[in-house]
Amino acid sequence: MEAKMETQVEPAEGVAPAPTAARTLSLEITDKAAAMAKKQLEKRAKPGTMIRLGIRGAGCSGYTYVIEFEDGAPRDRDRVFEKDGVKFVVDKKSLLYLAGTILDWEHTLMQQGFKFRNPNEKSSCGCGHSFQI
User: Fold this and answer.
1) Which pLDDT score is estimated for 128?
2) What is the extent of the structural domain holding 41?
3) Cβ contacts of residue 29 below 8 Å, gap of 6+?
4) For the chain, which terminus, N or C, has the lower number of CB atoms within 10 Å?
5) Is residue 91 part of a domain?
6) Is there a domain that residue 78 lies in?
7) Number of independent structural domains in the chain
8) What is the DSSP string of the chain?
9) Tens of pLDDT along 50-90?
10) Is residue 124 part of a domain?
11) In 3D, which of 76, 63, 44, 71 has the Cα closest to residue 122?
12) 107 compared with 9, residue with greater pLDDT
């Protein structure tokens, strides 16, 4: 009989812990977000265009969310999510940090736009454009 021993290593201070294998690497897109993305794609009028979601190192808190048009085919390591005929593509590295995120469309008196509801987000800056994981 063989015993398995697991060791848990704490990340260094200031370093985001690596995602666990047990965590599902997926995200949810709300009906409102899909509808607004579809409208934007219709305005663009380029068949086959997808919406690229991701994160980049930027801003005062470390990371910022990315939403861009993707005109080409998905890359080999991309994951494609589809909602109501709209394809959303996410690179593998970004998906590690977006796991469990809900992409929504928010319309308030002060602003309107896509809203990432990310359970991995530890804090965000005052301007709301960057965040920490």
Assistant:
1) 55
2) 28-132
3) 37, 81, 83, 86, 88, 102, 103
4) N
5) yes
6) yes
7) 1
8) ---------PPPTTSPPPPPTTS----EE-HHHHHHHHHHHHHHT-TT-EEEEEEEEETTTEEEEEEEEE-SPPPTT-EEEEETTEEEEE-HHHHHHHTT-EEEEEE-SS-EEEEEE-TT--EE-TTSS-EE-
9) 999 998 887 666 788 889 999 988 999 999 999 999 999 99
10) yes
11) 63
12) 107
Residue 20 has pLDDT above 50, yes or no: no
Tokens, residue 8 = 């848990």
Q: Is residue 46 part of a domain?
A: yes
Q: Is the pLDDT confidence value at 127 over 90?
A: no
Tokens of 111: 């602003």
Quickly state the pLDDT bin for 31 (edges 50, 70, 90).
Answer: very high
